[in-house]
Input
Amino acid sequence: MAIQNAYVKSVLENLEKCYPNEPEYLQAVEEFLEPLQPVIESDARYEKLNVLGRMVEAERTVVFSVPWVNDQGEVVMNHGYRLQHSSALGPYKGGLRFHPSVNLSVIKFLGFEQTFKDCLTGLPMGGGKGGADFDPKGKSEAEVMRFCQAFMNELHRHIGEDTDVPAGDIGVGGREIGYMFGQYKKLQNRFTGALTGKSLACGGSLARTEATGFGLCYFAAAMMKDHNESFAGKRVIISGSGNVATYANQKCTELGGKVIAMSDSCGYIVDENGIDYKIIQQIKEVKRERISTYVNYVPGARYVKGCSGIWTVPCDIAMPCATQNEIGAESAKALIANGCFAVFEGSNMPCTPDAINAIKAAGLLYSPSKASNAGGVAVSGLEMSQNSERLSWSFEEVDAQLKNIMENIYHSCAAAAAKYGMSGDIQAGANIASFLKVADAMLWQGVS
Ligand code: NDP
Output
């Protein structure tokens, strides 16, 4: 569907003119705007008060230098970002990414998506995102700590439990959150829940580590149930081998699926007997090795160099859980040709627009990341609630709430799509349901 509505078109064209060098951001906005056209036409206030024009821009963007000293005593300069996209529904909320590919366009696309994802959880959170072009790979423990502290030396001015609450993302796990939390506490002299993904001893939530991967599988199971399908006996590919991928593997396996392939940025492994998530955890979380070493633990498995070939392995279900634009048109074609019947997005914006079109045109089930990977931020929201109450809930309690939230997200997206004549299109439903809620809050709060 191309954008026909003159107002919606003008919003996109204006962004294209202002930000010609931010392709990821423009891609995310265009994908969001397309299905909104009938919604925009249903209420004149959206155009009259330029709700869309305001909604696509971040409320505030902070770009800062992060100088730090490496183990050789050299002074290294990285670039830090915190984008506060929308506070319409609550404090800005969204992760921090440390990866050499981080730039303003990547942070803007992630912050934009985050607002609508956070909204879908039903919890009172706005959207934001941040990070740095720092590569934790190959750095010593002391270097990672010094970088995190240097990053927080600036970030602490902009965050707080009622203002902006960052969490982890690519390259930022429990270790990095710990170093940043320690520095935040020292600089602010306050022990508060200004970050989520904390260790249990410091106010973290049980099930936060597992939340995005588990949530993805709960969402996928709800969507498949609606189509008389399930994970039972299915061959599943999960790209990546980080936080989201590892726990998606665990839950998918518990629900009866067999994860036959996983990857990292160098290559992928295939294990026809099913990849044991505990071995991945050991390799990636404990030893911080490459996924290629899996074949040393499981001799029958094979390793292939280059990560994009993973989508040529025949499967029933594909769950991309590594990074943006990891499934292009060619990979989508390979999945379809091999009989894959569902693509559930775990990473943010993993499918290119061409890939999405091909997947939908071939009639596969398809869930967009802003809906199916919302489990991480949902449990971050529950961590904020526990911090406010100064209580901790049991694993079972948090997990049950997570499952309930993911099932509700699926059903609210399905209902929104049906209401606007796009039954079964969960991508359209996710955009419509989240737009309506953020727009309502913006209209209620006035132009400010
Ligand atoms: P991790 O850093 O834990 O893992 C990332 C994985 O993806 C690693 O296996 C990494 O390989 C691989 N990867 C990263 N960049 C690339 C690349 N350019 N090409 C190929 N592979 C790559 O990150 P997470 O698991 O936390 O995040 C994965 C995705 O899920 C991201 O899109 C993130 O935004 C999204 N997400 C994460 C949430 C969370 O709670 N953690 C919540 C919602 C979304 P290598 O080790 O070689 O770098």
Residues 101, 168-171, 212, 240-245, 264-266, 307, 321-323, 346-348, 373, 376 surround NDP (CB under 6 Å). Residues 12 and 117 are 20 Å apart (CA to CA). The mean pLDDT is 97.
